[in-house]
Design brief:
mainly alpha; 10 helices; globular; membrane; transmembrane helix
Length: 252
């Protein structure tokens, strides 16, 4: 004979397995995380606006990886701030990890390559006051702030190895975008290619492809480093991730 009580137990167990933890214990509001992320979004947006005010070519401005990555940061962090303030679950690591990787690329490439005369690809030039402020906001403030948010305000072990490959889709697509844009512009146009290492006039397509492979491998290494660090870094707020409080009775 079939024991009806055991059937009910199996059904209850399966149902419980399908119920997310957030449905058992509601998530709490995180006002500090919300305020910090709102400030990061504001910093990115301010840098973009200042650059746009001082630019005489918006098409060229918005072709830069720097601007595009900061637009993503502004959107993702504003959205994350809203979810933290309203006690909603965090955004997908596919999205937050992509924003972290791209803005990290922006900061590292700027400081070690574009702002470094010894790199061979420097873009140092005289800047106005607005450009200098925007430069610091977009290349220094937002990358550091995004890293701090990840390390101090985000639960660890959310990134997967598969995500490291998915995050590279946008940087890989940026190459044909930059080359196609440059090919459509008249030779000699200022800023025809957004970055010196993508300048076909200087390096030819073979040289640009070599540079792209080198940078692509570096970006993949950075993505893998973020994945590994995320797997082994300590939880910044372990108690808030428990389903029940220490010493509380078992869930029924």
């Amino acid at each position: 004979m079939i024991d009806p009580s055991s059937s009910r137990l199996r059904t209850t167990t399966k149902s419980a397995a399908r119920v997310p933890a957030a449905a058992v214990v509601p998530m709490g509001r995180r006002p500090f995380a919300a305020a910090f992320r709102a400030l990061v979004a504001l910093a990115a947006l301010t840098g973009i606006v200042f650059d746009a005010i001082d630019s005489h070519d918006l098409g060229r401005l918005f072709s830069y990886f720097t601007i595009q990555s900061n637009i993503l940061v502004a959107v993702v962090f504003a959205w994350s701030a809203y979810r933290a303030w309203t006690a909603r679950p965090p955004l997908s690591p596919r999205l937050t990890g992509a924003a972290l990787l791209y803005i990290s690329i922006t900061g590292l490439v700027f400081h070690f390559v574009l702002d470094n005369d010894a790199s061979g690809f420097s873009m140092t030039a005289q800047r106005t006051t607005l450009e200098s402020i925007a430069n610091q906001l977009l290349h220094t403030v937002t990358p550091i702030a995004a890293a701090l948010d990840w390390l101090l305000l985000t639960a660890p072990a959310r990134f997967t190895l598969a995500l490291t490959g998915q995050w590279l889709v946008y940087p890989l697509l940026y190459l044909p975008f930059a080359l196609t844009r440059g090919a459509l512009l008249t030779p000699g146009t200022e800023g025809r290619y957004p970055y010196p290492f993508l300048d076909v006039d200087l390096h030819g397509y073979t040289g640009v492809l070599t540079n792209a492979v080198t940078f692509g491998l570096a970006f993949w290494s950075l993505a893998l480093a973020l994945f590994l660090l995320d797997r082994f870094r300590p939880d910044p707020h372990p108690l808030s991730n428990r389903i029940s409080r220490p010493g509380a009775r078992p869930l029924k």
